Amino acid sequence: MPASRGFAGPGAPRRLAVRVDLVHSGPPRDRSGRLDRREENPSGYDLLPVRRRVSRHSPEPPSPRLRSARGGEVRREEDGPPDALRIFDISRRIDERTVPWPGDVPFSFRSTGGLAEGSPFESTCFTMSAHLGSHADAPSHVFPGESTIGRVPLEAYIGAARVVDLPGRGEIGPDDLPEKSLRVKRILFRSLGRTFLSPLAALRLADTGTILVGTDAPSIDPADAEDLPAHRALLSRGVALLEDLALEAIEEGTYQLVALPLRLDALDASPVRAILIRD
The pTM is what? Predict the structure, then answer.
């Protein structure tokens, strides 16, 4: 921001405006070109004052825009916020009332330090199945020795995704898949939790280039499936899986999906905070 100060002198009074620019200079180097650790500026920024005379009758100069080290402009508060994005939270709420998959561990938590007990901060720990609520499955969920959820590539979980209604109840075969669900990289099926994919339907999605399949059902396989054939069909072909998404209030269409799993290197699944974005 400019700083101005009046001063007295012969003739018409003038003001001196001082502008301070933030310039990335990089860490200092010695005469041989090596980094000088004794005087290194960790931030890599220097303040360079620039002076100029401004007439009393000249309009006040505009505030200079801040520029980043690479020359890009940095938005100021007075510039106003960017156009608002519509964000849809499609994650299930998790608390002690959330119903787990049969046989899985429900959510519970306890305090490990509280403000009421005199601690300077609040701290909690929790226990639950990695498959509780909206979650991502890793290949190690059904294939021993394969990638855990902390080691899967993340590209599939970010990008354009299409929400498609999956009509009917029960098993969806390859011929039951809506045409608009084919040849789509990321597909999210909204069925009110009433349908699941047959292994052949899962294979057809993988064969048409799908890299992520999501569903609002607790699983893409039926509850009584013993070896999870749809899981195996997709995960064996590198297709990412999202299950138990909250899609009930989401309209069909194309959105930007963000649903990153946690970096849990030892686990076969992870909760996700899944959102859809529309301009």
Answer: 0.70
Beta carbons within 10 angstroms of residue 87's beta carbon: 13
The values of phi and psi at residue 149, to 5°, are: -65, -25
How far is it, in rounded angstroms, from Cα 120 to Cα 123?
Answer: 10
For residue range 38-95, list pLDDT tens digits in order.
Answer: 444 444 434 344 444 444 444 444 444 434 333 333 333 334 455 678 999 999 999 9
Whole-Å CA distances, 185 to 32, 59, 106: 52, 56, 33
Q: What is the total residue count of the chain? A: 279
Report how far residue 98's alpha carbon sits from residue 77's, in angstroms, rounded to the nearest whole number. 41
pLDDT of 31 strictly over 80: no
CATH of domain 132-278: 3.50.30.50
| Residues annotated as catalytic (active site), given as ranges | 141
Residue ranges of the chain assigned to CATH 3.50.30.50: 132-278
The answer to whether the Cα torsion of 219, 91, 239, 179 is positive or negative is positive
Read off the pLDDT band of 23 (50, 70, 90): very low
Residue type, 220: I
Q: Are 51 and 18 in contact (CB under 8 A)?
A: yes
Q: What residues pair up with 7 in beta bridges, in sequence order?
A: 14
Q: Which pLDDT value is given to residue 270?
A: 98
Residues in contact with 153: Cβ distance below 8 Å, sequence separation at least 6, in sequence order: none
CA–CA dist 71, 8 (Å, integer): 38
How many C-beta atoms surround the C-beta of residue 247 within 10 A? 25
**What is d(CA 56, CA 33) in angstroms, rounded to the nearest whole number?**
47
**Measured between alpha carbons, how far is 191 from 114 in angstroms, rounded to an integer?**
42
Q: What is the pLDDT of residues 205-243, one digit of tens each?
A: 999 999 999 999 999 999 889 899 999 999 999 999 999
